[in-house]
Amino acid sequence: MRIRHTVALAGLLAVVSSPAGGLAASAHDATSDVYAQVQAAAPGSADVSVVLDLEYDLLMKSAWLRAEAYEATGRAAQLAELDEHEAAVDGYVTDRFAVTSDGDPCTPTLAAADVVERGGRAYASLAYAYACAGAPDGVHEVSSALFPDAESFVHSTETIVEYALDGEEGSAVLTASSPTLTTGEHRLLKQLAEFFVLGGEHLLFGLDHVLFLLALLVGARRLRDVVWTATAFAVAHSITFLLAALGVVEVPAIVVEPVIAASIAVVAGVDLVLLARDGAALPSGVRDALAWRGTVRDERTAWDRWRLPLVFVFGLVHGVGFAGALGIDAAWSWSLLWSLLAFNVGIEAVQLGIVAVVFPLLVLLRARAPRTARWALGAGCAVIAVVALWWLLERTALA
User: Does the keyword Transmembrane helix apply (predicted)?
Assistant: First the structure.
């Protein structure tokens, strides 16, 4: 029984922090978000204006262009490739993003193309004019099937729509299972549910945030520690997430992303030091190397003193990271605020779920096999620290 518990937890840490999953790409590469701003072209007109922001390299790959197109770096080179392959890009997008008016397809025309930055990534920004034959007071539908799983480049693509159409304003998340937005629906509850799920997915698939949370749990011994630590992290990232998502606070991704990586490395490093407090679990040389400041017990006392302030500060940075991952760039509205709150609640729900699953396993493992637990957790924390340091190097080099 002890062996099964140990293997299960060691496997959890190894899989979550696997270099194969985390070092080959950034912490958010498995999925992609498309951003769409949809609005009436003019008062009293059925025509629609759409601005689509799509990851540049993913768009070029999905349009089956040569390597020079999707490997281009720098805005000037990417703009040149976008201009050269305008027909292929336009064909790919308009085959998968559609607008109808009263059931009749609207005709798209590519009006402008640009390359912009979102969260440190290059995005192709495509402005379309959709000519619609329906009545000005009719019903519009917006559908997206961009970057489907079948193309095998990414999975679970979501199109985040901000719209002002047919006298309505709001947000929507279009997915493979729910690809269409229809105006005239009473969709506030659906909108909140969409952003709740989106928030949960952003935490679950944001490997850096998950590793940070796991490292915090390894360093917590008592339920009280977990409650206070999780609360400090939640409050901090909620504050900066809302401020950053609403445009009140702006911090460049080249600053935020390296600090997030550093926060993971710091917490994992502290965990390794604290695991050394039970000296019999580690070789004497490793134990002596880790305990560089007095006794290891002194290290735990110091960490207990600084844990909450440090977690709060790191949480502030992670909150800006959540906002950057969401990537909404829309004017203030109550609808936007409700969407952001639902997104944040989704983050908290998944965070609570991870805590509820992992912490009892840690308690059980420490109680049943304390010596083996220290080795397993030490190995997991070491892998987390190495992955975080690699991200720090990678993100600093790319800055």
Answer: yes
